[in-house]
Amino acid sequence: MYDGESPKVKKEINEYIQAAKEEDSADAKPTNKTQSDAQLSPSEHQQLIDLLAPVLKHVLVGLSEKTSWYFTVIAGGPSPEEGGEIHTICYHHGKTEMGHNFGNTMPNFVTRVMKPYVEFLQVAFHE
């Protein structure tokens, strides 16, 4: 998928990955807001959020190829595009022989997994 992206999208993904690497190497105390959050406009923040799906797909496909593992990633937080309302994404990589991913095979996935995660986020990001 990454190879088929435009140069602009590839540049944005690479910048996002580089920023994440720099953040990981910093010895800052973990908080809900990073120092770089204050420097981002709401539209820049939203652009990074919008890049999560292609970045996750690229990373997890590569990891799966190297490890023979499958992955499920759940993420969420306030969405500038939605006025700060909590927004979540869930990405599954790996399918059964019948073509179903983890979310498809787990009964009541939204109720059992996503709803409690949203409740956690609402508490974690409550100001």
Description of the structure:
There is one protein chain. This protein is an alpha+beta fold. The protein has one domain. Helices cover 51% and strands 14% of the residues. The chain contains four helices and two strands, in the order ααββαα. Strands 1-2 form a two-stranded antiparallel sheet. A hairpin with a 5-residue loop joins strand 1 and strand 2. Helix 1 crosses helix 2. The radius of gyration is 16 Å and the shape is globular. The model has no long low-confidence stretch (mean pLDDT 84).
Give a topology summary:
Layout (H helix, E strand, L loop, with lengths): L6 H19 L16 H26 L3 E9 L5 E9 L8 H4 L3 H16 L3
Antiparallel strand pairs: 1-2
Helix pairs in contact: 1-2
Structural class: alpha+beta
Count the beta strands: 2
**Strand fraction:** 5-15%
- Gyration radius over CA: 16 Å
Report the principal-axis shape: globular
What is the percent of helical residues?
40-55%
Our count of domains comes out at 1
Return residue spans where pLDDT drops below 50 for at least 5 consecutive residues: none
Q: How many angstroms separate the termini?
A: 38 Å
Average pLDDT for all residues: 84
The biggest beta sheet is recorded as: 2 strands, antiparallel
Order of helices and strands: HHEEHH
Query: What's the helix count?
Result: 4
**Oligomer kind:** single chain
Strand order of the largest sheet: 1-2
